[in-house]
Amino acid sequence: MRFKKEIETVTKRKIELLAPGGSIDSIKAAILAGANAIYCGLDKFNARNRAANIDFEALQGVLHLAHKHDCEIFLTLNIIILESEFSALVTLLNKLQNTSIDGVIVQDIGLLYILRKYFPRLNIHASTQMTTHNEGQIKFLSKLSATRVNLSRELNLKEIKALSTVAHQQEMLSEVFVHGSNCISFSGICYMSSVHGGNSGNRGRCSQPCRDRYITTTVGKEYPLNLKDNSAIYDLKELYEAGADSLKIEGRIKSSDYVYTVVDTWRKQLDLFNATSKVGVDNSILHKVFNRNFSNTLLKGEISKEMFIDNPRDHSIKHLSEINSYATADELEAGQLKLYKEKEEIKSSVEDKINSISALKVALQIKLSGKPTEPLKVAVRTPDSEFEFFSAYNLLDKGTEALNKEMVLKRFKTFNETEYFIEELNLEDIKGDVYISFKELTALKKRILFILNESRETLEPVKLPAIKRMAKENEKPSLSVLISSEEDISLVTETKAKIYFQLPNSFKGQLEVYVDLFTQNEKIIPYFPSVIIGEDYHAAVQFLHRVKPKLIVTNNTGIAYEANQLGIDWIAGPHLNIANSYSLLSLKEDFNCSGAFISNELNKNQIQNIKRPEDFQLHYSLYHPIVLMTSRQCLFHQVTGCEKNKVDNTCIQSCEKLSSITNLKKDSFLIEKSKGNYHTIYNTNNFLNTAILNDLSSVFSSCMIDLRDVKTETKLGQDKLEVISLFENLMNGNTDSEKEVKKAIYPSVNGQYKKGI
Known about the structure:
Layout: H1 2-12, E1 16-21, H2 24-33, E2 37-41, H3 56-68, E3 72-77, H4 86-96, E4 103-106, H5 109-118, E5 124-126, H6 135-143, E6 146-150, H7 157-169, E7 173-180, H8 192-195, E8 229-231, H9 236-241, E9 246-249, H10 256-276, E10 294-295, H11 297-300, H12 316-323, H13 329-355, E11 362-370, E12 375-381, E13 386-394, H14 405-411, E14 420-430, H15 438-452, E15 478-483, H16 491-494, E16 498-502, H17 511-520, E17 525-528, H18 534-547, E18 551-554, H19 557-566, E19 569-572, H20 581-591, E20 595-597, H21 604-608, E21 617-624, E22 627-631, H22 636-639, H23 651-654, E23 657-662, E24 668-673, E25 679-683, E26 686-688, H24 691-695, E27 702-706, E28 715-716, H25 720-731, H26 737-744, E29 745-746, E30 748-749, H27 751-755
Parallel strand pairs: 1-2, 1-9, 2-3, 3-4, 4-5, 5-6, 6-7, 7-9, 8-10, 11-14, 15-16, 15-27, 16-17, 17-18, 18-19, 19-20, 20-21, 21-27, 26-30
Antiparallel strand pairs: 7-8, 11-12, 12-13, 21-26, 22-25, 23-24, 24-25, 28-29
Helix pairs in contact: 2-3, 2-10, 2-13, 5-20, 6-7, 6-19, 10-13, 12-13, 17-18, 18-19, 25-26
């Protein structure tokens, strides 16, 4: 019923206003400010660990309060899930399926799989952490029963319109971030916090090193990766025309007064637009709560240096100075004091509002009455309703245990996991000793819940079937090599290793070149990147149709979907963050995938718990430059400068630059812009993990080494063919081969493997 309601909303074109709820107070604030829906997280399995979050009991009260105000609640389960966590996760899902939750927001493919297969009552929303930016990805998600998709924040209105159209064709809703913090990286494929500090963004622990202070760059910037906040408050008409179904406000770690102010402003803008088709032009109140100034250039498709701000702190005071020409320092101080007073008044006003409503669970008064040989009468009262009914069977005058409060409360303990709690249980009108079966008491409990829950049946707990561990393979893993230069294609004839060739993010202008390259070199295997947008995606699909490769590796689920449609064998790349057996099952069963790289964020224990399906290969990236983030922004605007103020059509295809930045902890990062690719930040030292060959020698079918010419500080002491030979010796277990590899490749790191996530 919920999904039908959402599709009806699409027809009416009433856009949903979706608000953040990082705490009970913020949820109340969002409800009172007029949010149509709120996304919030529990204390586990959500991508904002720094938010206050809520526990399961508090969620029940939130659900009742929100639905009373015609507001929906979506629960964030938007992290990658480890194998060891599925038992606790399924326990939670069994509870959730018997609540009135309106949707769950998901990143992990394995979780998508079990939700579709075992928990069909729960509506699935694809998180922004799934980096959805092309139509193949939407079709991929639709096959996994997602009912809506949160599109990548980096998309412009034209791209949003194209993807919203595809989503609607798949009976899915589209969701777009319209206000709040902007990430410099494509969400879901940022590893900066993970590599430097062990706080994975894919586990909700991002420590935001991108907003750190850095040693002043050539162009005088101290915060070169710090973006202004997103605000599309004036773009409502264009978003409507682009087909966006839900407008999402960021801010689960923001204060309740921030949430109220932003939601209230957007509510008024939406109401004005719905009534008049006009858009208001006053956003002054948004500058009075926390902000880093505002930009809508991603939405407009004008990626420029104006997106950056060289200060991560609150911009409110500076904005006040910018819009007022104060003649004296006294006038400036008076203006600042006035703003501080306004801020305090906003906080006080919001606090009064949220204190006026309760998010506690609803009190139940249950009265039982009856006598032997007659049915038991059950009368239920809540603050908003009351009803009564009779048991299906008569009470007995003999039995094992007479009806009493203790036995009833024991059978009715399930109420503790609902929006209600038993405030009073009255058995005063039970005449004498009467007896009732436990089965009948359970039936009465279910009937009470059925009525309270508007005729929604209580579902029995789901138990996932055990995944059988396949027999260990005795064969040593084979070697694969990743290259990106035509000069290295000769390696195909010089080694037995499989050669993967990295395709760029954009090759729409070079399609013929790549078709010819792979047609003439049939032994090289296409390796697709994580991000392929718009026309570049269509070019990639044309490439698949024309080349018809026997095998590909892809880090993009849109390309995976197309490969499956064309009957092309494919391997899931390392940046799909595969971390559990259910993800592997989904890839194999739903998309005919033949193998997958296991996420490089995992440690030994986390990897060895994973069970591969039958006739399925596991892969591991043994050596590679560490991609910390991929960005659609031009990072050189803030570092070395650029003669162009904004990114144009030639930048992605033609620009080729290299630089670095260093934070105050003396951690340096390589910034690379290569032809056909987005800006990439690499770790200074490459990842090398020879230990895994000893720790988990029989787990992997193949290990990959990345020999692309990325100019980090890690150096190859020998030529590429010799390095390949060293790795072949290592994988064959030759004596001293590990020492030789480490001597030839230096310096290197493998902290992610040691720590895990």
